[in-house]
Amino acid sequence: MSVSKELQKLEPALGRLLDAAPGGGGAEVADRGPLADLRAEGRRAVTASGLPTQKTEAWKYTSLNAMRKVDWSGPSADGADFAQVQAAIPALDAYTVVLLNGRFDPVLSDLAGLPKGVRVLPMPEAMSDTAVSDILASLVPINTAPMAALNTAHLDDGVLVRVDEGKALDKPLHIISVGYSAAAPTAFHPRILIQLGEAAEATIVESHIGLDSAPTLSNTVVEVNLAPSARLGHYKLQDQAAESFDISTTAIHCGDKSIYDGFTLSLGKGTMRNDVRLTLDGERVEGRLNGAYLGYGASHVDNTTFIDHAKPNSTSREVFKGVLAETSRGVFQGKILVRPDAQNTDGHQLNKSLLLSDKAEADSKPELEIYADDVRCSHGATIGALDDQQLFYLRARGIDAATARAMLVQAFLMEAVDEVQKVTVRDALQGLLTARLQPLFEGGLA
Predict the structure, then answer these.
(1) Where do the structural domains in the chain lie, given as residue ranges?
(2) Would you call 85 helix, strand, or coil by DSSP?
């Protein structure tokens, strides 16, 4: 495919990524209408802004220079070893959606028996509904979110989840996004749209898994819209391979009396960035953004969050805890905005990082921006090593040093996982975390 003059003017990395998009390289876009318009808007936005650099405050602690050096290609049609994937994800009694390199796989997915009033559709099929195309990209500000704009320029697959008014999912929906590459480095850009009607209820789990192969770039956008009194448990696992990149932008809009319970567990070896924007655009909304992360090797984990209290009488809770070993790096940037009309806001934010190595690094940047005078808001951050007194207490009871350190690290992370409100999901994540920690401790991580 020939490269257009437009792409030749861009930085090489962005030009290569856009060349693989529908209509890239100067080729004609096959479709017309809302989908083509969205792609064009995403292309315009990312072309204007370029890929993120550390000169931008939101990306100050995360460099994409390694990603820029890779010669990315589009998703391959070659099959993945799904048995390997199953060994890396939590065991759940759930409906299952499988995205292979961002593409809905109807054979591996299992949606039999979905309750009435619940629809789960591949994005190309869902896009025939004008109500879907109208809301896509409406929650994500692509003009200020370059990676979301890049995703929009590639928009062609993913999944829609819609729960009608008063309906509920009887068990979790597990969306498994698998990144794999048989030979050349592969970039893909899945789109997930979640819509809950008034008083609807659902539990959705995302597992982002990278197979050990050539590098992959998973650039995901998730848009969540909760109508008044809707309740969503939204939980995410990241387990990427080394030298791979897992970048996601998630935007959540909450109506009156809705409840959003979000949690992210990051265990991968590569570069992970979660950009989460939670808007409490109603009264008596409960919003929770929590997470835990384990860094080892040269992994990089960045959780950048923004909680927007737009209306009065709502609460938000945010707790992120990380353990960083070897040469890994953890980043937490959390901002809570309380707008002038958002009186009686109750917002709490906490970030704790535990360093197991002198070469590990933690960066924490909590922020409060308050324009209302009747609020209860707090934030805090701590970075430190294991407590010598706690180690001494365990050693004094006959526990060897390595086991004592392992017990303290596991307890530290499990306390964060305890924030998950859905018991079955919490148990599954705790089991997965325990299984992951054990061989790492045996290898001398702690």
Answers:
(1) 33-385
(2) helix
Give me 143's structure tokens.
């003009």
State the angle between helix axes of 34-49 and 12-19 in degrees (0 to 180), rounded to the nearest 10. 170
Compute the Cα dihedral for 425, 426, 427, 432 and give only its sign. Answer: positive
- For 175-228, the pLDDT digits (tens) are 999 988 877 889 999 999 999 999 999 999 999 998 877 789 999 999 999 999
Tokens describing residue 208: 């982002």
Report residue 250 as tokens: 């998630």
DSSP 3-state of 126: helix
Q: Write out the two tokens for 151.
A: 């995703």
Contacts of 293 (CB under 8 A, 6+ apart): 264, 265, 266, 267, 272, 301, 303, 320, 321, 322, 323, 330
pTM score above 0.90: yes
**Distance, CA of 185 to CA of 60 (rounded, Å):** 26
The Cα 50–Cα 9 span in angstroms is 11
Name the one residue in this structure whose structure tokens are 């089991």: 431
DSSP labels, 51-82: S--TTSGGGTT---HHHHTS--BPPP-----H
